[in-house]
Amino acid sequence: MGADLERWRLILGPAAEGATGGLGEENAGRDAALDWLYGRDDDLGKRGVRRGGARSGERGAGDEPSILTTVDWLDGIHRLFPKETIERLERDAVERYEIHDVLTDPEVLARIEPNPALLKAVLRTKHLMNPQVLEAARRIIEEVVRQLVEKLSVQVRTVFTGSRNRRPSQHRRARDFDLKRTLRANLKHYRPEDQRVAIERPHFHSRTSKRLEQWQMVLVVDQSGSMAGSVIHSAVTAACLYALPGLKTHLVAFDTAVVDLTSEVDDPVELLMKVQLGGGTDISSAVEYAAGLIENPRRSIVALITDFYEGGNPSRLVHTTKQLCQQGTQFLGLAALDEDANPNYDRELAGRMADVGAHIGAMTPSNLVEFVAERLGT
């Protein structure tokens, strides 16, 4: 059987075998692994994919091959697929099909590849875990947080090592490359035959160190279930900003209650272990709490990270937001703080807050760091 026919058989399922022929051993293993997961889907079932008893942990009688356990399945996909595919399969197992033993069996957790999607799933289900399983889950939290902190720390160092000014510099650093000045100075070397400018002398900016006066940053984070990604990135961002000179960082989490997590902000792993996702939402109480932390309104930033679906008092929330903005506090209302920055939020309430002076939008963590840096440099 040719490789192309095997690929078509994998795409079309067992019903196509009359036209394509059977599968080789390795592709048969891939097919079984995909069937174990996606055979749960009704739409795929209509296509002719074998469905029999594929639910996690179930075993059935009959002539079909024995049903894989989750551990068998994980072992198989790590042997049969590239890393990017493995991550997608594990993410779908957790998020799309809610295969809970991926997150409640320590043997499974020991095999699974840490990634942000699994971390979000751990945060949603850790209240169901016994201490042994929770300790295994901590490995996922630690590894993903380490990766996120490592990435964001580089961006923080870059932003806060100094601001560019217009004076030229003899120090040739890629991040200080002055594109406009370089193009102007080298236009005489334009080559029309290949439509390129030959750069004979590149130009660079100089940098001046930031003189940071004391500012205050209050991150107010909605810990409802839909905000899991933003909670993770808020914890990591707060940790990276916490050690900056001239910036006093607070982290406040809320649902119907308000919890000040500032004492844990230097340890994002421990902080995330304490977060409890889910429950109601009282945004107005959380913003009022943040307002009570403000020491110098004109040197303060409040970043509210929420989907704006208010379970408390919307009018009180708008009133408190207006007071903060009028006293000179920079107020950010972020519908998402994660790498995708794809928000899903109550636009009506967010619009009312924008009308009284709040900046409403969505940001990646690096965008937020740049925003803070601009304010601290003023």
TrEMBL record:
One Pfam family recorded for the sequence: VWA_CoxE
Domain VWFA: 214-373
Domain of life (superkingdom): Bacteria
InterPro entries (UniProt xref): LolB, Uncharacterised_CoxE, VWF_A, vWFA_dom_sf
Name of the protein: VWA domain containing CoxE-like protein
Organism per entry: Glycomyces harbinensis
